[in-house]
Write a structure and sequence with these properties.
Elements: H1 9-31, H2 38-45, H3 49-55, H4 59-84, H5 88-106, H6 110-115, H7 119-141, H8 151-162, H9 171-185
């Protein structure tokens, strides 16, 4: 990769940071977590090791920063798909299905095991839990979802059940899981 430089220092720093994140994620995907070093990242990114260390103290810090970007994208995508659907039940179903498919796609790797812990992950989980809780409350208010259990409890139920998508063998199985979750939310 050629040396990175743009018109302003702020833009340059942003571009270098993004290149570091993208390169590290690509190296981990291609070679595995344990084979990625700061030297290799610097070499592949086209920057000096000293410069790399000005941005991040180590590989794990780079991966956590990369994961934070991915989480923000996933949360944005969930908000977007949730706003496109029709009534509250359809929005809830769309969000649960989209999230379950994401869980199915990205979990179960050594990288996921490393990154799905810590404060950044807890904050994202709480944000997602609040988003699902709000969708459930809206669906309960419209009579589409049971209201004999609080939206907080139902959101926890959904989150724990959706985590099961990580170990399912196919997307069809993920869709069946979401159907079972939605059945548990039905008004009785």
């Amino acid at each position: 990769m050629p040396r990175l430089w743009t018109h302003t220092i702020e833009t340059h720093r942003h571009d270098v940071r993004e290149a570091i994140l993208d390169t590290t994620a690509s190296l981990v995907a291609e070679h595995g977590l344990l084979s990625v070093t700061m030297s290799r990242i610097a070499e592949e990114t086209g920057i000096g090791r000293a410069t790399l260390y000005k941005y991040f103290p180590g590989v794990e810090a780079i991966l956590v920063a990369w994961h934070e970007v991915q989480i923000a994208r996933h949360l944005h995508e969930l908000a977007e798909v949730g706003s496109r659907a029709g009534d509250p039940r359809e929005r809830l179903e769309t969000v649960l299905r989209t999230f379950a498919l994401k869980v199915h796609e990205v979990h179960g790797t050594e990288l996921a095991a490393l990154l799905h812990q810590g404060d950044h992950f807890d904050r994202a989980r709480q944000q997602l839990l609040g988003f699902i809780r709000d969708l459930l409350a809206e669906a309960a208010a419209s009579g589409d979802v049971r209201n004999d259990i609080t939206a907080d409890e139902l959101a926890n139920y959904c989150m724990h059940a959706l985590e099961g998508a990580a170990s399912l063998p196919s997307k069809a199985a993920v869709r069946r899981l979401v159907t079972v979750i939605l059945d548990g939310l039905r008004v009785r």
